[in-house]
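Predict both folds.
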Amino acid sequence: MFTINICLHVRIMELNQGAHKASRLALQDVISSMPDKVITNILDRLPLQDAVRTDVLSKNWRFKWTMLSQLVFDDNFFEYLSKTQGKDNHLRIISRFLLHLKGAITKFVLYIEKMRKFDDDDINHWILFLSKNGIEDLTFKLLDKTPFKLSTHLFSCLQLKHLKIYNCIFNPPPSFHGFPNLLSLELYPNAEKSSDVGEFAIKCHLLEILKLRYILKAGRVKLVEIAKLKNLKILALSLYDLDNKMITSSDTIFELLDSLPKLQELYLNFQVCKVRLKMRC
C-alpha cells in the first residue's frame, strides 16, 4: 500500500510538471504567433535597448526588433551604449541600427542633454533616411551643441504630423509649400541665421499646436501671420520675438484671440515675466 501511494504521488507530480511545461509552451506559442502589428506595438513601448534584447527570448523572437516603428535615442540610451559598447562609436551603432529596420518608422526622437560627438552630417543623413520611411513624429532636441543646420531633406517629409526642433538653423527652400498633415510644431531655431518662421507656419494649415521661441532676440514673428492659423488650439509665444510694431497695447493680444476661434490655451512668455491664460472650451 505504501509503495502504491509513493508511485501514485510520483505519477501525479510528473503529470503536474508535464501540464506546467505544456502550459508554458502554449503561452510561448500564443506570444510568438501574435500578429506582427501587435508585437511591434509591444516593442515600441519598451526602452530601445530592452526591445533589442528580446532577441534572446526564443528562436521565434530573433530579429523581431527589426519591426520597431518608434525610436527614442535619449541620454538613457547613450549611457547604456557607453557602458556596453564604449563611448566613441554611438554614431556608427545608430546608423547600423537604422539599416536593419523593416517597414515604416513613424516616430524618431534624438534627445541629447550632455555633450556628445554629433555633427550636422550625421543628423542630416538620418533625416534623409527617415524621409523615405514614412516619418510622422520627429524630434531633434540637442541642448548641449552649437546650432545645427537642418538638411532640406526635412522638407520632403510630407507625412509629418508632429515636429519638434530645438537649437537649429531653420531655412526652408523657396519651393516649400508647407507640411499638409502637420498638427503640432515646436520650433526653437537660431533666429540670427534662420528665415521667417511665421511665414513657414502659416503654410501648415492644419496646425493645432504652435510653440515658438528663438535662441536669440533678433527673430520676429508677426501676429497677423499667426492669426491666419484658424485651427490653433494651443499657442505659446515669446512676446519679445514678435514684431515690435504689432505690440501697441493689450488690445492687440485680444484681437489675436478673436481671430483664433478654436483656441483653448494661450501661453505668453514675456522677457521678464510669464503670463498664462487658459481659454474655456
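Second protein follows, with its predicted C-alpha cells after the sequence.
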Amino acid sequence: MLGLLTNDVTQLVAGDGPPAAAALPRSLYAHALNVQGRCLYDLILYRLHESPEEEPHILLECDSGVLDAIQKHLKLYKIRRKVNITPCLDLSLWAVIPGEKAGDIASSLAKCADQAPILSPDPRTEVMGWRVITKKGVNLSEIIPGSHVGNIQDYHRHRYKQGIPEGVKDLPPGVALPLESNLAYMNGISFTKGCYIGQELTARTHHVGVIRKRLLPVQFLAPLPTDRIPEGANIVTEMGKSAGKFRFGGGELGIALLRLANVNEALYLNSGGDKVKLTASIPEWWPKTASK
C-alpha cells in the first residue's frame, strides 16, 4: 500500500525506535489518488497487530458505497504479493465525539479497551474524537458509561461544522484534489516518503506553496433540501463572481470548495435559479497560519 496511498503506511508496521520499544500508532489517515493526482478514496487505516514482530494486519475504513471498487483497486496492484484482501462485514464503526461536559474521554475509553477490537483517536484531528470498532450488535452505551448514542445525522452535522470531508459526496472521485481537500491539515500525507500514484502534482503544489481554494464549512440561514441541489452547484459573490462549488451537506450545514480570498464576503448558492445566502468560516482546528 506504500505506493498506493499518500501517507507513510510503514508507520503502522515499524516505529522509529528499536522494534521492542517502538510505539506504533493505532491508526492513520490517507487518500488513494489516480495518476492525475486527484482523490479516488479517503481511508482510515487501523493496525490490528500488537507489535512489529507480528505479521502485519491492517483494517481499512472506507465509504461503504465504494467497498467493491476499493477491493478491485487493491487487487489490481496486488500482483503476486502474498496479501489477503477480505471485507469485514461483521464489524461496526462508532465515532465517539466529546461533548461540552465530556470530561476525560481518553481515560473513560481506556477502561473499555478490552471490549472493543479497535480503539483509537481519530487520526485526522482531535475535534473528531475517537474511533471505536466493535463486533456488530454491540451496544456502545453499555461499553462507555454515560455516553449517548446518537445517529448518523448527528455525526455528519458535527463533521460539517468542523469542515471535515468524508466519502465520495464530499470528495468526488477523480475530481477532488488532496491539498485543496485539506489532506495535509488532517495528517493524511507524507512529503518525505517514496513515490506513490498521483504524487507528482501533489508534491509540486506543496512545494510551490500556493493553494487558492480549500474545502470549508458553510452554513445557510435555513435547512436546504440537499437532494435538490445539483452536484457541484456554483457559489458566487454578491457581484456574481464565481467563488467556488458546493459539495454536500445536511440541514443548514455543508461543505464547499471555496476561494480563500472570498471567505469573508457575502456568498450565495445558485439553486434552481434562486440565490440562497450562506456563510463560510475557517475551522478553529486549522493551523494558525492557514488563514493568512
